[in-house]
Amino acid sequence: MTDVKTAINPLFLREEELRQGVELLFFAYRDFTAEPDAILAEYGFGRAHHRVIYFVGRNPAMTVSDLLDILRITKQSLSRVLGQLVREGFVVQRPGSRDRRQRLLELTIKGVELERRLTERQRVLFAKAYRDAGAEAVEGFRKVMLGLIAPEDRSRFPVKR
Amino acid sequence: MTDVKTAINPLFLREEELRQGVELLFFAYRDFTAEPDAILAEYGFGRAHHRVIYFVGRNPAMTVSDLLDILRITKQSLSRVLGQLVREGFVVQRPGSRDRRQRLLELTIKGVELERRLTERQRVLFAKAYRDAGAEAVEGFRKVMLGLIAPEDRSRFPVKR
DNA sequence: CTTTATATGTCAACATGACTGACGTAAAAA
DNA sequence: TTTTTACGTCAGTCATGTTGACATATAAAG
User: Which residue in A62, A98, A114, B97 has the most C-beta neighbors within 10 A?
Assistant: First the structure.
């Protein structure tokens, strides 16, 4: 019987390649969240707070519904972390002008400061990885990652230029 | 005052590019875990069980310590999910032959079946993304992802061939 | 103008998976 | 023989997700 691992076996190579993809994503995500987690702990916050601060900073005046669509959690889950962030002065809510049922979300100065502090580490990590890999590799990274993301969310990443 | 977004501003472009990286990772991870989570729920398991089953399947006869190093969680946290998997017959433990303090981990047939069922979805997802992006993009993806991973774990991904 | 739908919020109960800290056992290494 | 290592367990706590029920204000439809 031929050894499935040493023979030239396209099916095995494929499986191996795909498993490496799975693992790359696991390890990258694990290491990508480690640094901000440590900072968040100083504030008594967790990863969920980071996500809210990040996306509110990125999409000023976004609605609660839009944020829920991004995070894919229930409003009750969001409510806990968002409520904390509002009470502690990192996020403000104001009624929408067109639709006054909406509570548009915005970071305060304090919120912007924390956002930058948290995300800076992650930007530095990406800057290093991008620099070491080169522009062409970054383009490939983008392509593969977009393919992993649900089609309805791909439009969040418009083509550059 | 010049609009920082419309002017040709290399610093802004860089920040935008880096933020896109952060978001690509967030969305990809979110969507990559969604399908297995649904299957796990049938068994009354969670994502933590998946990680254990995955890595034990990938590294047969691995030690508990090695698994802890990969997962970066405490032994108490691991103990709960691992204990369940052992009790329910997905994983077996046997003493190491060289070092009998070790409890080497292995999937049972049942464990292998669940592992394949869970990971198949993720492999299909990667297969699609890889096929759509092309071989060159996959190489770039690999390079960037490796750069994001802590140096001590990069050796888990040997160069192909 | 009345009804219905939508955006948001809240209360309560529960599950998962992480943590810390303390203590225990068996086997390897010094 | 003593110390260290690999692993396990008990107990308590916290963060973050869930479901389900109910409430309020406003927009949209009839």
Answer: A114
Mean per-residue pLDDT, A61-81: 98
Q: A150 phi and psi, to 5 degrees?
A: -50, 135
Residues ≥6 apart with Cβ < 8 Å to A122: A32, A35, A36, B18, B22
CA A3 → CA A6, A7, A83, distances in Å? 6, 6, 58
Task: List CB contacts (< 8 A) between B127 and chain A.
Answer: 14, 18
Which domains are present in chain B? 43-153 (1.10.10.10)
User: How high is the mean pLDDT of chain B?
Assistant: 93
| Alpha carbons B105 and B96: distance in angstroms, whole number | 10
For chain B, the helix, strand and coil percentages under 3-state DSSP, each to the nearest 5: 70, 5, 25
Mean pLDDT of all residues in chain A? 93
Residue A160: per-residue pLDDT? 66
Whether pLDDT at B94 is above 70 = yes
**pLDDT tens column, B110-124:** 999 999 999 999 999
Other Cβ atoms within 10 Å of B5 Cβ, number:
8
